[in-house]
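hey team, just a heads up i'm posting the complex here instead of the shared drive bc the drive is being weird again. everything in one block, sequence lines first with there labels, then the predicted structure for the whole assembly after. its three chains so it's a bit long, scroll down
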Amino acid sequence: MGVILQINNLTKRFGGLTAVNDVSFEVKRGSLIGLIGPNGAGKTTLFNLISGFDKPNRGSIWFDGVDVTKSKPYKRVKQGITRTFQVVRPLKLLTCLDNVIVGCMSPKGKIQRGDLGVDQLASSILASVGLIDKARIPPIVLPFGDLKKLEIARALASNPELLLLDEPFSGLSHEEQMIIVELIRQLNYEGYTIVIAGHVLRELMALVPRVLVMNRGKLIADGPPEEVVNIKTVIEAYLGRGKN
Amino acid sequence: MIFQIEFFVNTLVYGAALGSVLALLAVGYSLVYGVGGIINLAHGAFYILSGFIVFWFYDAGIVPYSVAIILALLIVPTIAAISYIFLIKPTQEHEVGVLIITFSLAFLIERSIVLYEGAQSIGEIQDRSFPPIVSGQIEFLGTGINSQYILIMIIAALVISALIIFIKKSKVGKSIRAVSQDKEAAQLMGINVNFIIMLTIVLSAFLAGIASVLYVPMIPILPTDSWDYLLMSMSVVILGGLGSLQGSVIGAFIISYTRFITFYYIDIQYQLAYSGVIHLAVIVVMLIVRPRGILGKKQRT
Amino acid sequence: MLDKDEIREINLDSVEELDIKTRRPIGEPFKKIIQRMKNDTKRFVNYKIPSSSSNLKSWVKSFRGGIGLITLILISLIPLIINRNLYYHIFITAMIYGIFAASWDLLSGVTGQVSFGHAAFFGIGGYTCGAFIKYLGMDWPVAIVFGSFIGVIIGLIIAIPSLRLKGPYLALGSLAFSLLLWQLFGMDSLKDIFFGSTGIRNIPHLTNYDFQEEFFIVLIIMIICVVIMLAVFNSKLGTIFQAIREDEISTEASGINTTKYKLYAFMISAFFAGIAGSLYTLHLGNIKPDIFSSIKSFYPIIMVMIGGIATISGAVFGAYFFIVVSEIIVEICTGLLPTEFLVIFADIATFIFAIILIIVIRFTERGLMEPAIKRSKSLWDILLGK
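-- predicted structure starts here --
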C-alpha cells in the first residue's frame, strides 16, 4: 500500500500564463482524493500533465516507482493511469459496447480478460455502470447522464490502477450525481486509486477523505475536507478578497 | 566565364522573381489556414484561372489588355467568395470535408478550363500566355533581364507589405488576428467570424491573381499546372510553418532559389529534371524532420 | 440486435440496485459480476451478450453484408449475358476500381486518414507488377502480391512521418508523394530506373486477351479482396480504426497506440490499392506515368462518396456506378458531338462527377457521416418501436 503517484515541482506554462505552478504532492495507493479549485485553477492542466496529454516545463511525475514524465498518453494508460474528460468525448457513432471494447483492446485492458471474450468483458463493464441496456446504442442519441457514465465505463475498460476523473458530476441532476458518487465509492472499495477534479460540492466533500485545493496554478491546501473549507486562502479563492 | 555569370545572374533574378510569386501565393494560403483552419486545395486552380481569364479576354480581343487584367482580378476573388459561401462554410467543421470539397473544386476548375480550351482548339491543349505589363530588358552584370521580372519583385514587395500593415494596423486586421487566435472568443466579442474567413479567402485569391497576372507572361500555363502551383505553395507553407506569414516569405525564397540553383547547376550539367520535383521532396523531408516548419507554431493536442 | 427478452434477462439478474440512502457500498463491483458469470455457467450460457462484431457467417446472414455481396455478384454477371468485349472491359475496369476505391475507403473513410494521393500505391503496384512479369518472367499471381508488398514498403516512406502527427499531414503528404512519383516516372532522363514517359509496354496479358476468362479471374480476386477488407472492417481491428476516426485523442486516452493502428490501416489499404493497380496494368497490357496523375487519386474519392463512405461495400457500388455512367456519358457525347472532341469526353464525365461530388458533400448533413448516422438512428427507432 505504498505511494502510487508522486508529483514533484510540476510546472506548465502557456506563453505568459503559468497554468500549473510548482505543484508537488503524493498519492497513496487505494486512496480517494478530491482536487478542487475555481475555474481556471489548473485542475484539467494538471490532469493533462499526469495523463500525458501535455508535457511539463519543469518537474517530474513518478508512477508506481517509475518516472513517467516523458511517456506518451497511451503508454501511461499501459502503466496504469487513465483519465476521463471534462467535456465528454465518446466515440459518437460507435455503439456503447464498441466504445468500451476499444479500451478493452488496449494492452492493459486485454490483461483483465482472463478467459472471457472481449464482448463479454465489455458487457460486464457496461453493466457495472448501469448502461447494459444501451449496449447497442450509439452515444449520439443518449442523454447527458448516460454519457457521463459511459465516460467512466470507458476509463474502466483500460484496467487502470489510477483513475483521474475530470468533473464527473458537472451538469448532472442530484439523483444522477448520487449514482456517480456511489459508483466511485464502489470502485474505490474495489481498490482503484481515484482522484476527482471538481468544484466544492456537498457530495464531493462528503465522499472523499482528502482534498487538494488549487488556485491559479498553485496548490494552496491539502487535507481533510472539514479542515480545508475553513482555510482562509481557500475561501478567498472561491469568494474573492472582498472589500477591504 | 560568361557562361558562369549568366547562370549566376539568371539564378539570382529568376529565383527572386519566382520567390516573389511564391510569396504572394504562400502568404494567401497561410493566411487562410491560420485564420480559418482551411486548407484550400483549389489555391493553385485560382492561380491558373486568373491567368486563363486574362488570356481568354485578351485573345478574344473584346476588351483592352488592362481591362482583362482587372476583370481577372475581380472575377476570381468573386468565385472564391462564392465557393466559400456555398461550399466551404457548410463543411467547415470537418477538416476532411473541407479538403475533399476544395479538392473537388480544384478539379472542377481545372476540368472546366480543359473543356473550354479543348473545345476551342479541338482537343489539343496548348500552354497559354499573354504579353507582360512592361516589356523590354535591363542590363545587369552583362546579361539582359526582362523588365517584367523587376516589376514582379517590386509589386510583390509592395502588396505583401501593404497586407502586413493592413493586418497589423487596421480594425479589420485586428479582427483577422483575433479570429486566428481563437475563433470562439472572437465570435463572442462580436466579430463576424464567417465574414473574416471569407475575407481571407478573397484576399488569397486576389494575391494569387496578382501573382498570375505578373508571372504568366514569363512562364506560360497549362490547365494541369494548377497542381504544381498548389504544391509549390504548400511546400513553401510547410517549410515556413503553417500559419506564419513571415515564414511563408522566407520559405518562398528558399524554395525558389533551391529550384533555380538545382536547375542551373545540376539539371543542365547532368541532363536531369530535378528542379521540377525539388519542392515535393522538400514537403516529404520537412514532414519527416520538422513538420511544423521553420517558424511554425507547435501542434496542440 | 437485442430484443425485449434479452434486455429483461440482463437487467434482472446481473446489475444490483444502488442504495443511495445508506451510503455504503452495496451491490457487486463488476469484478464480482464476472466471477459470478464464470461460476454460474448455466446462466453464463444463457446470458445473451450483445455482440458488436460478427464473424463471417453471421455477417453474411445479416442484412447489410449479405444483400450487398449478392447484389454485387449479380450485377457483375451482366456481361455474361451480353457477351460483348466492351461490356467485359467495362466491368473489369469497374471491378478493378472497386478494389481501389474500397482500399481508399478503409484508410480514409473507416479510419479517417484521408489520402489524396492514393494513386501512388495504385501506380507502384502496377509498375512493379508489370516490371516483374515482363523483365523477370514471374507468374502473375506472385508478381501481383509481391508488387503490392513493395508498394506498401515504399508507401511507408510517406506514411510513417505523416501518421505520427495528428492533422491533415497524410492528405498533403500523399498528394505530394503521388505527384512526385508522376514526375519521377515521367522523366526520360531517369529512364533506366523509372522507365520514362513511355512506361512499360507489351506486358503479357493475363489471359492473352480472352476477356471472358479474365473477367472471371478479376471477379474472384475482387471478391476475395473485398471480403478480406469487409472482414477487417467488421472485426475488432475495424472497431479501433473507426474509433480513431471518431476521436483520435479519446481513443489514445483509452490506451490505444493510434499511430500503430493508423499504420496498420495504411498498410492494408496500400496493399489492396497495389493489387488493383497490378490488375489494371495487366488488363491494359502497358503502364504509363499518368497512372500517378491527380485524377487517378480523385476517382476513389468520388466513388466512395457516391457509394457511401466508411462502408467498404459502398465503395464497390460507387466504382460500378462511376465507370458505367462515365461510359454512358461518353456514348451520349459520341452521339451528340462531332468526333474531333472525342479526346475530351472522359474529361466531360469527370467534370460532371466533380459537380456531383460537390453536391453530395455539400448536402449530406454532418459532413460525410450521414449514412452511418441514418443507420444508427434507425437502430434506435427499432429498439423503441418494436
